[in-house]
Amino acid sequence: MRLINQKPSHSKALVLGLMPFLLIVLMYVFASNARLHENEDDKLLPSFSHMVDTMEKSALSPSKRSGEVIFINDTLSSLKRLGIGVVISALLGLIISIPLGLIPLVRAGLSPFIAAFSMVPPIAILPILFIIFGMGEVAKVALIVIGVTPLIVRDLQHRVEEFSKEQLIKAQTLGASTWTLVIRIILPQMLPRLLDSVRLTLGTAWIFLISSEAIAATEGLGYRIFLVRRYLAMDMILPYVIWITLLAFLADFLLKKFTCKLFPWYENKDKA
User: Rounded to an integer, what distance in angstroms lies between the CA atom of residue 25 and that of residue 232?
Assistant: First the structure.
Protein backbone atom coordinates (compact mmCIF):
# COMPACT_ATOMS: atom_id res chain seq x y z
CA MET A 1 0.00 0.00 0.00
CA ARG A 2 1.26 3.46 -0.88
CA LEU A 3 2.24 5.73 1.99
CA ILE A 4 -0.35 8.31 0.96
CA ASN A 5 -3.15 5.77 1.50
CA GLN A 6 -2.04 4.57 4.96
CA LYS A 7 -4.15 5.94 7.81
CA PRO A 8 -3.04 5.53 11.45
CA SER A 9 -5.36 4.09 14.09
CA HIS A 10 -6.61 6.33 16.90
CA SER A 11 -3.97 5.11 19.36
CA LYS A 12 -1.18 5.35 16.80
CA ALA A 13 -2.27 8.86 15.84
CA LEU A 14 -2.19 9.84 19.53
CA VAL A 15 1.35 8.50 19.93
CA LEU A 16 2.52 10.22 16.75
CA GLY A 17 0.93 13.48 17.90
CA LEU A 18 2.69 13.34 21.29
CA MET A 19 6.10 12.48 19.89
CA PRO A 20 7.13 16.05 18.89
CA PHE A 21 6.18 17.37 22.33
CA LEU A 22 8.12 14.61 24.10
CA LEU A 23 11.10 15.25 21.84
CA ILE A 24 11.12 18.95 22.72
CA VAL A 25 10.89 18.16 26.45
CA LEU A 26 13.76 15.67 26.22
CA MET A 27 15.91 18.13 24.28
CA TYR A 28 15.22 20.83 26.87
CA VAL A 29 16.04 18.52 29.81
CA PHE A 30 19.27 17.43 28.15
CA ALA A 31 20.35 21.02 27.36
CA SER A 32 19.31 22.27 30.81
CA ASN A 33 21.24 19.54 32.62
CA ALA A 34 24.30 20.25 30.50
CA ARG A 35 24.26 23.98 31.26
CA LEU A 36 23.49 23.52 34.95
CA HIS A 37 26.31 20.99 35.22
CA GLU A 38 28.74 23.67 34.05
CA ASN A 39 27.12 26.50 36.04
CA GLU A 40 24.60 25.87 38.82
CA ASP A 41 23.48 29.50 38.67
CA ASP A 42 22.69 29.42 34.95
CA LYS A 43 19.44 31.34 34.25
CA LEU A 44 18.97 30.59 30.57
CA LEU A 45 17.66 27.02 30.88
CA PRO A 46 16.37 26.44 34.43
CA SER A 47 15.31 22.98 35.53
CA PHE A 48 11.64 22.09 35.76
CA SER A 49 11.87 21.80 39.55
CA HIS A 50 13.35 25.28 39.75
CA MET A 51 10.54 26.68 37.58
CA VAL A 52 7.93 25.04 39.82
CA ASP A 53 9.55 26.50 42.96
CA THR A 54 9.74 29.98 41.45
CA MET A 55 6.11 29.90 40.32
CA GLU A 56 4.95 28.75 43.76
CA LYS A 57 6.86 31.52 45.53
CA SER A 58 6.33 34.39 43.08
CA ALA A 59 3.08 33.79 41.22
CA LEU A 60 0.94 31.15 42.93
CA SER A 61 1.25 32.31 46.53
CA PRO A 62 -1.12 35.05 47.77
CA SER A 63 0.46 38.48 47.87
CA LYS A 64 1.32 39.63 51.40
CA ARG A 65 0.15 43.14 50.53
CA SER A 66 -3.14 42.47 48.74
CA GLY A 67 -3.78 38.77 49.31
CA GLU A 68 -4.31 38.26 45.56
CA VAL A 69 -2.70 35.48 43.54
CA ILE A 70 -0.65 37.14 40.79
CA PHE A 71 -0.91 34.24 38.34
CA ILE A 72 -4.71 34.09 38.56
CA ASN A 73 -5.06 37.87 38.23
CA ASP A 74 -2.76 37.93 35.21
CA THR A 75 -4.68 35.12 33.54
CA LEU A 76 -8.12 36.62 34.15
CA SER A 77 -7.01 40.08 32.97
CA SER A 78 -5.55 38.74 29.73
CA LEU A 79 -8.51 36.45 29.01
CA LYS A 80 -10.94 39.32 29.59
CA ARG A 81 -9.13 41.58 27.11
CA LEU A 82 -8.74 38.77 24.61
CA GLY A 83 -12.37 37.68 24.90
CA ILE A 84 -13.79 41.17 24.42
CA GLY A 85 -11.49 41.86 21.49
CA VAL A 86 -12.22 38.58 19.71
CA VAL A 87 -16.01 38.83 20.20
CA ILE A 88 -16.08 42.38 18.82
CA SER A 89 -13.86 41.33 15.90
CA ALA A 90 -16.10 38.35 15.12
CA LEU A 91 -19.28 40.44 15.14
CA LEU A 92 -17.75 43.17 12.98
CA GLY A 93 -16.27 40.56 10.65
CA LEU A 94 -19.64 38.90 10.14
CA ILE A 95 -21.54 42.17 9.67
CA ILE A 96 -19.02 43.59 7.17
CA SER A 97 -18.14 40.45 5.22
CA ILE A 98 -21.65 39.39 4.18
CA PRO A 99 -22.50 42.55 2.18
CA LEU A 100 -18.94 42.64 0.84
CA GLY A 101 -19.23 39.13 -0.53
CA LEU A 102 -22.89 39.27 -1.58
CA ILE A 103 -23.50 42.76 -2.98
CA PRO A 104 -21.29 43.81 -5.92
CA LEU A 105 -21.78 47.55 -5.30
CA VAL A 106 -20.58 47.24 -1.70
CA ARG A 107 -17.70 45.03 -2.78
CA ALA A 108 -16.58 47.54 -5.40
CA GLY A 109 -16.67 50.39 -2.90
CA LEU A 110 -15.19 48.83 0.23
CA SER A 111 -13.14 45.80 -0.78
CA PRO A 112 -10.06 47.83 -1.86
CA PHE A 113 -10.16 49.79 1.40
CA ILE A 114 -10.45 46.63 3.51
CA ALA A 115 -7.56 45.06 1.60
CA ALA A 116 -5.39 48.15 2.12
CA PHE A 117 -6.38 48.51 5.79
CA SER A 118 -5.48 44.87 6.46
CA MET A 119 -1.91 45.63 5.34
CA VAL A 120 -1.38 48.30 8.02
CA PRO A 121 0.77 46.80 10.83
CA PRO A 122 -1.42 47.14 13.95
CA ILE A 123 1.63 47.31 16.22
CA ALA A 124 2.75 50.42 14.35
CA ILE A 125 -0.45 52.26 15.27
CA LEU A 126 -0.41 51.17 18.91
CA PRO A 127 1.08 54.53 20.02
CA ILE A 128 -1.78 56.27 18.19
CA LEU A 129 -4.30 54.11 20.07
CA PHE A 130 -2.68 55.02 23.38
CA ILE A 131 -2.86 58.71 22.46
CA ILE A 132 -6.52 58.48 21.45
CA PHE A 133 -7.86 56.05 24.06
CA GLY A 134 -5.29 56.47 26.82
CA MET A 135 -3.29 53.72 28.52
CA GLY A 136 -6.32 51.80 29.79
CA GLU A 137 -8.20 48.74 28.62
CA VAL A 138 -9.83 50.34 25.56
CA ALA A 139 -6.54 50.74 23.68
CA LYS A 140 -5.56 47.11 24.28
CA VAL A 141 -8.93 45.80 23.08
CA ALA A 142 -8.86 48.20 20.11
CA LEU A 143 -5.48 46.80 19.01
CA ILE A 144 -6.92 43.28 18.94
CA VAL A 145 -10.00 44.46 17.02
CA ILE A 146 -7.97 46.43 14.47
CA GLY A 147 -5.56 43.57 13.97
CA VAL A 148 -8.03 40.69 13.79
CA THR A 149 -11.17 42.12 12.16
CA PRO A 150 -9.69 42.66 8.66
CA LEU A 151 -8.43 39.06 8.64
CA ILE A 152 -11.87 37.71 9.52
CA VAL A 153 -13.57 40.03 7.03
CA ARG A 154 -11.38 38.97 4.11
CA ASP A 155 -11.71 35.28 4.96
CA LEU A 156 -15.50 35.38 5.30
CA GLN A 157 -15.88 37.56 2.22
CA HIS A 158 -14.24 34.84 0.14
CA ARG A 159 -16.49 32.25 1.78
CA VAL A 160 -19.59 34.26 0.81
CA GLU A 161 -18.32 34.66 -2.75
CA GLU A 162 -17.94 30.86 -2.97
CA PHE A 163 -21.65 30.28 -2.33
CA SER A 164 -23.51 28.36 -5.00
CA LYS A 165 -24.90 30.85 -7.52
CA GLU A 166 -27.61 28.35 -8.44
CA GLN A 167 -28.87 28.32 -4.85
CA LEU A 168 -29.08 32.12 -4.72
CA ILE A 169 -30.78 32.31 -8.13
CA LYS A 170 -33.38 29.70 -7.12
CA ALA A 171 -34.15 31.62 -3.93
CA GLN A 172 -34.61 34.85 -5.88
CA THR A 173 -36.83 33.05 -8.37
CA LEU A 174 -39.07 32.04 -5.46
CA GLY A 175 -39.33 35.70 -4.46
CA ALA A 176 -36.55 36.05 -1.87
CA SER A 177 -35.31 39.59 -1.32
CA THR A 178 -31.67 40.47 -0.55
CA TRP A 179 -32.49 40.62 3.16
CA THR A 180 -34.19 37.20 2.99
CA LEU A 181 -31.14 35.75 1.23
CA VAL A 182 -28.92 37.05 4.02
CA ILE A 183 -31.09 35.83 6.91
CA ARG A 184 -32.33 32.50 5.54
CA ILE A 185 -29.44 31.29 3.37
CA ILE A 186 -26.17 33.15 3.91
CA LEU A 187 -26.14 33.71 7.68
CA PRO A 188 -26.92 30.12 8.80
CA GLN A 189 -24.14 28.78 6.61
CA MET A 190 -21.68 31.51 7.63
CA LEU A 191 -21.88 30.95 11.40
CA PRO A 192 -19.74 27.77 11.48
CA ARG A 193 -17.35 29.38 9.03
CA LEU A 194 -17.12 32.37 11.36
CA LEU A 195 -16.07 30.08 14.22
CA ASP A 196 -13.45 28.53 11.94
CA SER A 197 -12.15 31.97 11.06
CA VAL A 198 -11.97 32.95 14.73
CA ARG A 199 -9.96 29.79 15.44
CA LEU A 200 -7.48 30.69 12.72
CA THR A 201 -7.01 34.22 14.05
CA LEU A 202 -6.67 33.36 17.75
CA GLY A 203 -2.89 33.19 17.48
CA THR A 204 -2.81 36.65 15.94
CA ALA A 205 -5.09 37.99 18.67
CA TRP A 206 -2.71 36.65 21.32
CA ILE A 207 0.21 38.42 19.63
CA PHE A 208 -1.57 41.79 19.77
CA LEU A 209 -2.68 41.17 23.35
CA ILE A 210 0.82 40.35 24.60
CA SER A 211 2.27 43.31 22.69
CA SER A 212 -0.17 45.79 24.21
CA GLU A 213 0.27 44.39 27.71
CA ALA A 214 4.05 44.57 27.38
CA ILE A 215 3.94 48.30 26.65
CA ALA A 216 1.27 49.57 29.01
CA ALA A 217 -0.36 47.43 31.69
CA THR A 218 -0.19 46.74 35.40
CA GLU A 219 -1.36 43.12 35.18
CA GLY A 220 -1.67 40.45 32.54
CA LEU A 221 0.35 37.56 31.15
CA GLY A 222 2.23 39.74 28.67
CA TYR A 223 2.90 42.39 31.32
CA ARG A 224 4.39 39.82 33.71
CA ILE A 225 6.66 38.31 31.06
CA PHE A 226 8.13 41.66 30.08
CA LEU A 227 8.36 42.76 33.72
CA VAL A 228 10.59 39.87 34.80
CA ARG A 229 12.68 39.75 31.62
CA ARG A 230 14.88 42.55 32.98
CA TYR A 231 15.98 40.07 35.66
CA LEU A 232 16.53 37.29 33.09
CA ALA A 233 13.93 35.29 35.04
CA MET A 234 13.51 32.43 32.58
CA ASP A 235 12.20 30.30 35.46
CA MET A 236 9.09 32.49 35.39
CA ILE A 237 8.99 33.46 31.71
CA LEU A 238 8.93 29.87 30.41
CA PRO A 239 5.99 28.73 32.62
CA TYR A 240 4.03 31.80 31.51
CA VAL A 241 4.77 31.04 27.84
CA ILE A 242 3.72 27.42 28.33
CA TRP A 243 0.52 28.57 30.07
CA ILE A 244 -0.32 30.97 27.22
CA THR A 245 0.20 28.12 24.75
CA LEU A 246 -2.09 25.83 26.75
CA LEU A 247 -4.78 28.51 26.95
CA ALA A 248 -4.60 29.10 23.19
CA PHE A 249 -4.75 25.36 22.48
CA LEU A 250 -7.72 24.94 24.85
CA ALA A 251 -9.59 27.83 23.21
CA ASP A 252 -9.00 26.32 19.77
CA PHE A 253 -10.14 22.89 20.98
CA LEU A 254 -13.31 24.23 22.62
CA LEU A 255 -14.23 26.29 19.55
CA LYS A 256 -13.82 23.21 17.37
CA LYS A 257 -16.00 21.10 19.66
CA PHE A 258 -18.55 23.91 19.89
CA THR A 259 -18.72 24.09 16.09
CA CYS A 260 -19.20 20.32 15.80
CA LYS A 261 -21.91 20.37 18.45
CA LEU A 262 -23.95 23.24 17.00
CA PHE A 263 -23.34 22.57 13.31
CA PRO A 264 -22.86 18.80 12.77
CA TRP A 265 -23.80 19.22 9.12
CA TYR A 266 -20.75 21.45 8.62
CA GLU A 267 -18.40 18.83 10.05
CA ASN A 268 -19.93 16.10 7.90
CA LYS A 269 -19.67 18.36 4.87
CA ASP A 270 -15.93 18.79 5.40
CA LYS A 271 -15.43 15.05 5.73
CA ALA A 272 -17.41 14.28 2.61
Answer: 21
**Superfamily of structural domain 71-271:** MetI-like (1.10.3720.10)
Give pLDDT tens digits for 122-143.
888 888 888 888 878 898 999 9
d(CA 205, CA 245): 13
- Which of 215, 216, 217, 219 is closest to 240 using CA atoms? 219
Amino acid at 152: I
Phi first, then psi: give them for residue 25, nearest 5 degrees.
-60, -45
Contact 167, 185 (CB under 8 A): yes
- Residue 141 φ then ψ, to 5°: -65, -40
- What average pLDDT is seen over the chain? 87
Q: Are 152 and 197 in contact (CB under 8 A)?
A: yes
Neighbours of 261 (CB within 10 A): 9
Q: How far is CA 97 from CA 32, 133, 172, 218, 256, in A?
A: 49, 27, 21, 36, 22
Question: What residues are paired with 62 via a beta bridge?
Answer: 69
Question: Counting beta carbons within 10 angstroms of the beta carbon of residue 156, is it exposed (0 to 12), middle (13 to 18) or buried (19 or more)?
Answer: buried
| Residue 39 DSSP code | -
